[in-house]
Structures are given as C-alpha cells and as structure tokens.
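Progress narrative, Year 2. Work on Non-homologous end joining protein Ku from Phyllobacterium bourgognense advanced from sequence curation to structure prediction during this period.
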Amino acid sequence: MAPRSFWKGYLKLSLVTCPVAMTPATTDNEKVKFHTLNRKTGNRVVSQYVDSVSGKPVDEDEEVKGYQRSEDEYVMLEEDEIEAVGLESTRTIDIEMFVPRDSIDWIWYDKPHYLTPDDPVGEEAFSVIRDAMEATGQVGISRLVMYRRERAVMLEPRGRGIVLWTLRYGDEVRDRDAYFGDIKNDKVDSNLMPLVKTLIDERMKPWDPKMVDDPVQDRLLEIIAAKKKGKKRPAKAKESASEPPSNVVNIMDALKKSIASESKTKKR
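Result:
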C-alpha cells in the first residue's frame, strides 16, 4: 500500500492545470533509531539550550537566529525577516522553463519525490505534460517552498509518473576541477584495456536492491530481538581476513593474475 502523500497542490503549464500529490521517493522509517536515556533511571534525556556564557537555560521566546560577523559579534534576524525574503508558500508547481534532460549534472540532484495525478479528471492533463517532456527529452524547472525553504525543482518523466527532484543550491556544489584538475590526462596503454574489460565482464551482474542492504542494521535488529527475549546478545560477526593492498609495480602482471584468480573462482 502506497504511503499517504505529504504535499498536495497543482501542476501548471501555461493555462493547463491539474491537481497533483507528492510523496518522498525515499524513506528512513525502517532505520533503527535510538533515544538517549539516563542509565540509572531508564528515563529519556531531553536537550535544552543554555547561554554559552552564563550557563543558564534560555526560554524558547528568547531564542533568535544570528549571523556571525566576527568572533563575538552577531547580526540578529527575526523569524518574520527571514520568512519575508522567501517565495510565498503557494500550492502550485508552475513550470517556468524546460531544459535538456542531460544538461543537468547528477551532482545537482538532491532529494527525489514521486509526483502523481490527484484527480481522475486531471489525469489527462498530467499525462500529456509527462509524455511531451519524454518525447522532447526535456525536463521542467520550477520553484517551490519545500521543507521551509524556497527551492528550485526539476520535473523528470519516469514511466507513468513524474519524479520531482529538489535541486541543490549553487553554493553547495564544489567545482570538480579543483579536485580532478591535477590528475594526469596521459593515454592509457592500449594493451591494458582488454584485460580490465575482461575483469569487468567477469564481475557483471544484474542490479539487485539486495546489493545495498545494510548489514549493520540487520545485526542491530538481532541484538534488539535477543535482548527482548532476555537472551545474550549474538556473538560479534567475524571479520573476513584480507591482505592489505600493496603498491602495484607492474599493472600488466597484476591484471593477468586477477583474471586468473577470477576464472578459478567462477569455476568453483
């Protein structure tokens, strides 16, 4: 059963409008979460803001946002001042422009959401916008207030629905050339490429969500289940012994040994 949508509004392209619902495409609800407790009493510990100089608790009414401009000096901003600079929290995703699908690099993608029609009457309008983007290879760009911030969002057709991605802000993305720029651009020995491709072929598998299972989560659930039953916690999983990597002196020899090792493993 699909979870309830956390946002409802309208998708708009010029004069074409249809009601839509949006739900985050990812969730951490199944993750093991912990509370901090007082070991002596078993009661939960609560956090509280205190003045860094006097050490006294600060009432919620006295809390205010501050921008640091020197070591001990801040510019204070009230909540209404911060909210005044943001986009009005409308319930309409108004597609302002379209850009080629492959022109937005992956690093700008932030959080995905499933966008679906929220009314059978508006389903045709939703579908024609989706199919037109798919046919032209374009994605829609709009702005929306989400998670209490104004954000640029990208609408990407996916199957029978649309995925709405929040996009990262410009100052969040670092310049890749600052990190990759010093890597030498020398041509790779053409004799090495077939060997590496052979290694890749040996390890090719179809994608399976189990490849990204969380073993730590599984172990934590085992410990919690054992403690519920009053049993001792399961023994710690043994770490597989592995030799530390050594500096490769001859890449050709290392690749040939790797292929030989892969072949033996596959036969077994």
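DSSP finds six helices and ten strands in the chain. The two ends are 42 Å apart (CA to CA).
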